[in-house]
Amino acid sequence: MEAYLVSQSQDIWDATQSMTFVVLPVAEHTTPEIVAQHEANAKAVNFLFFRLGPMDYERVSHLKTAREIWSLLSAHHEGTATIKARLVETYRREYENFVQKPGESIDDLFGRF
Questions:
Q1: Are 41 and 65 in contact (CB under 8 A)?
Q2: Residue-range domain boundaries for the chain
Q3: What is the C-alpha separation between 66 and 19, in angstroms, rounded?
Q4: What mean pLDDT is reported for the chain?
Q5: CA distance linking residue 66 with residue 87, whole number of Å
Q6: 16: left (phi over 0), alpha (psi -120 to 50) or beta
Q7: What share of the chain is helix, strand, coil (3-state, %, to 5)?
């Protein structure tokens, strides 16, 4: 998804990463820079919604900014940094403790690996 958003426009990708963007009422869109930010956010939200399945869409349809949508989806699908670190430790421990069982053939060992 990241590659798709970047390929559309760097501004669109930036909208998913910006933590300072706030959706303002239309009357307050005075500068061209603010209008450009709102357009990039709207495009990013549109691209994200278009690519989501029904379950993910239900999960994020109430959110207003691309950053909120991206954060929720990435936390749901990839996990937080703490969860990722725990998974790495778990997999590392499993790898380090992997040994051949008594009477196990090499083919069975690699099949289990």
A1: yes
A2: 1-78, 80-113
A3: 10
A4: 85
A5: 28
A6: alpha
A7: 70, 0, 30
Q: Which residue's structure tokens are 């970047």?
A: 6
Q: At 22, list the tokens.
A: 């706030």
Q: How many helices (H) and strands (E) does the chain have?
A: 7, 0
Sign of the alpha-carbon torsion through 14, 16, 19, 20: positive
Instruction: Note the Cα 34 to chain centre separation in Å.
Output: 25
Q: Which pLDDT tens digit goes with each residue over 27-71? A: 665 678 888 888 888 999 999 999 899 999 999 999 989 999 999
Chain centroid to Cα 67, Å, comes to 10
Whose tokens are 């083919």? That residue is: 107
Distance CA 35, CA 76 (A): 31
pLDDT at 29: 56
